[in-house]
Design a protein that fits this description.
Radius of gyration of chain A: 25 Å
Largest interface: A-B, 132 and 132 residues
Largest sheet of chain B: 2 strands, antiparallel
Distance between the termini of chain B: 56 Å
Oligomer: heterodimer
Strand content of chain A: under 5%
CATH superfamily of the largest domain in chain B: MetI-like
Number of domains of chain A: 1
Number of helices of chain B: 13
Low-confidence stretches of chain B: 1-29
Radius of gyration of chain B: 27 Å
Largest sheet of chain A: none
Mean pLDDT of chain A: 86
Strand order of the largest sheet of chain B: 1-2
Shape of chain A: globular
Structural class of chain B: mainly alpha
Shape of chain B: globular
Order of helices and strands of chain A: HHHHHHHHHHHHHHH
CATH superfamily of chain A: MetI-like
Number of domains of chain B: 2
Number of strands of chain A: 0
CATH topology of chain A: MetI-like fold
CATH class of the largest domain in chain B: Mainly Alpha
Helix content of chain B: 55-70%
Helix content of chain A: 55-70%
CATH architecture of chain A: Orthogonal Bundle
Distance between the termini of chain A: 30 Å
CATH topology of the largest domain in chain B: MetI-like fold
Number of helices of chain A: 15
Strand content of chain B: under 5%
Number of strands of chain B: 2
Amino acid sequence: MSTVAAPRTPPTPRTAQSPEPARRGTSSRRVVLYVLLVVLTLVFISPLIYMLTTSFKTTAGAAASTPQWIPDDPTLQAYESILGTSGTPVVRWLVNSLLAATLQTLVILVTASMAGYALARVEFRGKKIVFGVIIATLFIPPVILLIPNYLIVGRLGWLDTLAAVVLPGAAGAFGVFFLRQFFLGLPKELEEAAFIDGATRWRTFRQIILPLSRPALVTLAMLSFLTNWNDFLWPVYVLFSPENQTLPAGLSTLQNANAVRYDLLMAGAVIASAPVLLLYVAAQRYIVEGVGRAGLKG
Amino acid sequence: MSSTGTGLRAAAAAGGKPGTVAGKDVAARPRDTASTQGRDTRDGWLFLLPYLVLFTVFVIVPAVFGLWISLHDYDYTLPEKPFVGLDNYTGLLTGDSPFAAPFWSGMQATAIFTLASVPLLLVLPLAVALAMNLRFRGRNFFRAMYFAPYVLGVAVVAVLWRYLLDTNIGLVNSYLDAVGLSGAIPWLTQLPWAWVSLVGVTLWWTLGFNTVIYLAALQDISPELYEAARMDGATAVQRFRNVTLPGLRPVLLFITSVTIIASVNMFGQSYLMTQGGPGQDTRTAIYQIAETGLTSFNSGVASAMSLIFTVFLAAVSVAVFYVFRDRDAR
C-alpha cells in the first residue's frame, strides 16, 4: 500500500487520450461492458424517440393505454393543430425564443468579451475592486435577484416584453469570468507588436484578440444560447400574454389547459427541443468538452 | 482599415518570436509613461462600460434593493409600502407570519429533494465515467448519448416525463404491468412516488453533465501513476483508492457544489410534473418564493424568504468546502 504513493498528483502533461488501458479486457468482459453501455443509451435516448413518435399520433393514439412506439396511422394533425393560425401561437413562441436566445447571446458576447479583455489585459485604477465585485456575484444565488429584478423590469415597463427575457439574463458574471480566463492565456507578444505599430486598444482587441479567441467565443455563445433557450422560471413569471411566451413557458401553459392533449404537448416539446438537439449534434465536441474543461478548472 | 489590418495580421504571424517583432525592440515600447497610464485607465473603463451598465442595473441594484424590500411591507400593487424593520424575518423565523408554514414546508421539500438527489448524482455518474474511461470503440458516441438529455430544457424534460409517468396511459406503468408488477403506481400524485419521480427525472436529465466532468478529470490523471501502481501489485480497488480518488479530489469539490446548487434551486420539475403536489408536499423553496413574490405580490416577505434561503445555502456551502478541504495541506 505504502508503495502506491500517488496522492499528490504531480502536474501531468495533458495527453489527448489517457484512459486506463484495459489490458486485461477479455472478450467476455467486453461484451458485458457493451451491453451495459447500450442499455444506458436506451435509457437516455428512448424517451426522446417516444416523444418524437407520439407527436405523429392522433389524440386518441397518444392517450391509448397500450403504448405504441410506431403510430398505427401516423398523422401531422398535432403539428397542424399547434402551428396553425387558429390554435395556440406556437410559431410566435418559436420566434420569441429564437429572438431572445440570439439577442441575449449577442449581448453577452459583446459585453463580456470587452469587459473580460479590460480585466485581463488593461491596467487601470479600480480594476481589482471591480473584478472582486463581479466575481463575488458569481456566488450570489439567483433567487436573491428574482423579486427585485421583477420589480425593476416592471419599473422599466418591460414586463411581458422581449427585453425582459433578454437583458437581465445577460448581466451574469460567468461570461466575463470565462473570457477573462481565456484572454489571460493568450501570448502577450502579439498585442505588444500591434501597439508598437501604433494600433489602438480597440483595434488590437478587434483584430488580434477576438480572432484568436474564436473557440472560447463559440463555446460561450453556445452555452448562452442553450441557457436562454431553456430558461423556464423567469419567463413563466415575467411573460403573461399568450402570444409573448417563449417555448418553455408556452409549453407549460399548454400543459395547464383543461384537457391535456399529449399529442400536442409532444409536438410542442419536439419543436422546443429540435433546435438545441441539432445544435448539439453539430457542435457536440464544443459543448461536451467545454463542460469537461469547466470542471478541470474548478 | 485594410493597410493596418494586414500589418497587424503580419505582426500576429511573426509573434511567435519573442524579443524582436518585425525588427523592433520590444523593450523600447512606449507604454510606461504617465499619459499611457491615463489612457489605460480610460480604455479600461470604456471597455468595461457596456457590461457595467447591465451589471449595475440587474445585479448590483437588485441585490441592494432586495435587502431594502425585505425590510418593508412591500406590495407593489398597493400605494403604501411601510417600513417594518425585521418583521418579515422574525415572522418567518418564529412562525407568527401566515407565510411561515408554507415557507418552511418549501424549505423541507427542497431539503428532501437535495438529500435524495445529490448522493445519486455524485455516485452514479462516477460509475458511468469509470466505465467510459476504459479504452473501447465508440466511447465518444456513448458519451454524446448520455449527455444529450442535458441540452434539453426543464420544460421539455418535465412535460415528456409527465406523459411517460402518467398513472393510466404512461409508458412506465404499462411496462411494469407487462412484467407482472402492479402497474398503477401514482408516480406524480402520491408520496413517496412523487419524490421518486422528481429525483429520477432529474437524474435522467443531468447525469450526463456530471459524467462528462468526471470523465475529463479521469483522463487528466497520468497513466504512469496507474502503471506504477500496477507494477507495485496494487489491486483494482487499491488503484481506485490511491490513484483515482486523490486525482479526482479537486473536481469532487466542484461537482459537489454545482450539484447541490442545482438541486436546491429545483423548480421546473415540481412546477410542471407535480404542480407542487400532492397538496403542497413537493413545492420547493424556490417555487414558494416565486409564488409569494410574483403571484401574490408579497415582495417584502418573499425577499426575506430568499435571504433566509441564502443563509442556509451559504451554511451548506461552507460545510461542503470544509469536508473537501485539502487535508494534506500543511
